[in-house]
Specification:
Elements: H1 21-28, E1 32-36, E2 39-42, H2 44-63, E3 67-68, E4 74-76, H3 77-83, H4 85-88, E5 94-97, E6 103-106, H5 111-121, E7 130-139, E8 154-164, H6 167-188, E9 192-196, E10 207-213, E11 219-224, E12 230-232, E13 253-256, H7 263-270, E14 278-284, E15 290-296, H8 303-307, H9 321-328, E16 344-347, H10 348-351, E17 356-359, E18 365-370, E19 381-382, E20 400-415, H11 417-421, E21 426-427, E22 433-434, E23 437-444, H12 445-455, E24 457-458, E25 461-462, E26 473-477, H13 484-499, E27 504-506, H14 513-522, E28 527-531, H15 533-537, E29 540-545, E30 552-555, H16 559-571
Parallel strand pairs: 3-7, 15-16, 16-19, 26-27, 26-28
Antiparallel strand pairs: 1-2, 4-6, 5-6, 7-8, 8-23, 9-10, 10-20, 11-12, 11-20, 13-18, 14-15, 17-18, 20-23, 21-22, 24-25, 28-29, 29-30
Helix pairs in contact: 1-12, 2-6, 2-12
The chain binds one RNA strand of 77 nucleotides through residues 11-17, 19, 34, 36-37, 90-92, 108-109, 138, 140, 142-144, 146, 151, 155-159, 200-201, 209-210, 218, 303, 315-317, 406-410, 442-448, 476, 478-479, 482, 510-519, 530, 532, 534-535, 542.
RNA sequence: CGGGGUGUAGCGCAGCCUGGUAGCGCAACUGCUUUGGGAGCAGUGGGUCGGGAGUUCGAAUCUCUCCACCCCGACCA
């Protein structure tokens, strides 16, 4: 590609409403442009990368035996009514009516459509297993789209759906997809982790997420420093502390704590550690009343765990301040478990504390040297906190480490949820109708692009992994329009690259070198060759890798060897 | 949806308080010079000041209203 014929739309200034690096760089590099909240066009440069991601996904899905098809975005309401999701799905499902006033939606996912296809097309156990997939546009009317294409309303997803005769066979299909995902993410050249996960609203049991590791990731993932354990932090069990609770050592006292409403206030005000304080959160109960959730001061509530407790409203809602004052008689900031008249659940770690500090259930007062058993009943000890780095791994092997990740893939076992509600069946060997077991496997294709940037960039711009780069090589001739030798050398080499099938970008714009260099660095081209009169005069060309600190001068007669090495390395799988 | 904020040229902003000729930088276009890290000079084009209503002789500026977008919270690839 010649720069003069490519729409290179780089920006010098960083758009002000782009919050995260990937969004800023995608706009600056001219990959995407926004039309409305969470709605983007992919410009030619961005599309090249998107296609790279799609192609890797497609090749590995095909290799795993999945069959590509294409399903509609516009979906009739009938199918969603059959599965029950027309009612269940919230406003995230974009509903609309056509000119005949028929209800429909723009598909946020395709379980209904694929199940409809399956029940029409597949009748016999002989046709199983089967796995249909597509790479297609989804629409989810997110409450708050943000971070560019990381959380957009319209996005491209690869979604695959497997159908099997029984649970074991479903497990086999799932394992095949698991391996396919490993292959895909390996080929992307990104640092990622597969972690076990909550199966969320779609339902089913076993579920795994694939996270691209990045500081800016919205999810925390915990993994063992010794074993294989890795999971989304929201699912990780916090083991009770090994040590028994110490015996009470001092008498309980009430102290005045004016203005100390947070654990930090309290710890610094009393000169103690947050670990010695109790944090008491008040949530709504299932019956409309309140429940108390008690944690150690330095711990964080895990919402998923809390809403699974008997009596706690699910989804979890923290109580309104007015209701707390009405029921408990005092304000948030001085609540404690001792003397509370509502059900109290205490996290294991908090339940092991002795001589702790907690709210006195009187405004601006706290209790010190309080003790379970002596000053109130023995606690109901449960696991309701997020694990922390250094906690023991639930599999007993080593300690947990915590990293941040961007969820780009998710594989589920759905079981018979959709096949049953939509009455999809196949006949088995006995001629009996069997409800098949389904699996569902997603990759956020557009999100992969953003995640790759989030993980691979520097202050100059994007650093694409070889497998995702829009161009492998940039040729920057200096004085292309003035110097015949430079033009000759650049054109010849460009043609050689094309002949060898390399994706090459020739910057034939009449620009000063600094502008060319910064553009090529911004858009993240992995390799750069410079031709100049000075260099050519010395029988040299210049090479610089995107990650290299300095360029190197190489003899001109090695140019062909250099090209061959580049072709080999960039065409190698992975 | 709740809370906070912003809408002025393609992008980034000033002007608004205190009503009176719509401005700056970058980008774009033309010409000349320059050519190894985002050049210089000269010139040019580009605006329903988010929309509507109101107050006023007069509104980017004051009032009301609607809309859009951004940021913080509950959802997800």
């Amino acid at each position: 590609m010649r720069a003069s014929r490519f729409h290179l739309a780089t920006l010098k200034e960083t758009p002000v409403d782009a919050e995260i690096v990937s969004h800023q760089l995608m706009l600056r590099a001219g990959m995407i442009r926004r039309h409305a909240a969470g709605i983007y066009s992919w410009l030619p440069l961005g599309l090249r990368i998107l296609r790279k991601v799609e192609q890797i996904v497609r090749e590995e899905m095909d290799r795993a035996g999945a069959l590509e098809l294409l399903m509609p975005s516009f979906q009739p309401a009938e199918l969603w009514q059959e599965s029950g999701r027309w009612e269940q799905f919230g406003p995230e499902l974009l509903r609309l009516k056509d000119r005949h006033e028929r209800d429909a939606c723009i598909g946020p996912t395709h379980e209904e459509i694929v199940t409809d296809i399956f029940r029409r097309e597949v009748n016999s156990y002989r046709q199983l297993p089967v796995n249909f997939y597509q790479i297609q546009t989804k629409f989810r009317d997110e409450i708050r789209p943000r971070f560019g294409v990381m959380r957009s309303r319209e996005f491209i997803m690869k979604d695959a759906y497997s159908f099997d005769l029984n649970q074991d066979a479903m497990q086999r299909s799932y394992d095949i997809m698991d391996q396919a995902y490993v292959n895909i993410f390996d080929r992307f050249g990104l640092d990622y982790r597969a972690v076990s996960a909550d199966s969320g609203a779609i339902g089913g049991n076993t579920s795994q997420e694939f996270h691209v590791l990045a500081e800016s990731g919205e999810d925390a993932i915990a993994f063992s420093d010794q074993g294989d354990f890795a999971a989304n932090i929201e699912t990780v069990e916090a083991l009770p502390p090994a040590a028994e609770r110490a015996a009470p050592a001092a008498d309980m006292e009430i102290v005045d704590t004016p203005g100390m409403h947070t654990i930090d206030d309290l710890a610094s005000g009393l000169g103690i550690s947050a670990r010695q304080c109790l944090k008491t959160l008040i949530a709504e109960a299932e019956d409309g009343g309140l429940v108390a959730l008690v944690l150690r001061g330095d711990h964080e509530l895990n919402v998923l765990k809390a809403e699974r407790l008997a009596g706690v409203a699910s989804p979890l809602r923290l109580a309104q301040r007015e209701q707390i004052i009405e029921v408990l008689g005092n304000d948030i900031g001085s609540i404690g478990p001792i003397g509370l008249s509502i059900p109290v659940f205490v996290d294991h770690s908090a339940a092991r504390l002795a001589d702790f500090v907690c709210g006195a259930n009187q405004d601006d007062r706290h209790l010190v040297n309080a003790n379970w058993g002596r000053d109130c009943d023995e606690p109901v000890s449960v696991d309701i906190r997020n694990v922390l780095a250094g906690d023991p791994s639930p599999d007993g092997k080593g300690q947990l480490k915590i990293l941040r990740g961007i969820e780009v893939g998710h594989i589920f076992q759905l079981g018979q949820k959709y096949s049953e509600s939509m009455q999809a069946t196949v006949l088995d060997e006995q001629g009996k109708a069997i409800v098949p077991f389904m699996g569902c496997y997603g990759i956020g294709v557009t999100r992969v692009v953003a995640a790759a940037i989030e993980q691979n960039h520097d202050d100059k711009g994007i650093i694409w992994p070889e497998s995702l780069a829009p161009f492998q090589l940039a040729i920057c001739p200096i004085n292309y329009h003035k110097s015949d030798v430079v033009k000759q050398a650049a054109d010849d080499f460009y043609q050689q690259c094309l002949d060898r099938g390399l994706e090459v970008f020739l910057d034939d714009r009449a620009l000063r070198p600094g502008v060319m260099f910064s553009d090529m660095e911004l858009i993240g081209v992995p390799h750069r060759v410079v031709f100049s009169e000075r260099g050519l005069g010395a029988q040299q060309f210049e090479y610089k890798g995107r990650r290299d600190a300095d360029a190197q001068e190489l003899p001109l007669d090695e140019l062909t060897t250099f090209l061959e090495k580049l072709v080999t390395s960039s065409c190698a799988p992975g």
